[in-house]
Design brief:
about 80 residues; mainly alpha; two-stranded parallel sheet; globular
Length: about 80
Amino acid sequence: VLLTGNLSDGVAGLIAIKNHGGLCLTQDPADALFPSMPLNALAFAHIDLVFSLRTLANVLKALVAGEPVAGMRERAP
């Protein structure tokens, strides 16, 4: 989960997570106080879901429960 921030160091982490089969989520840049990092994530990492900060808790609860999340990209089996 990548939130508001500057630069692109969080993108390197997302790429590593994705390369090991993990999910990559980023805050919507329009919702971020500092949109630089979410924008870099969208440009350089395969993002599974873009979310607003106000929906983050519900998104995480649904993922933990194995429930579908609106807007989530389909994952290959």
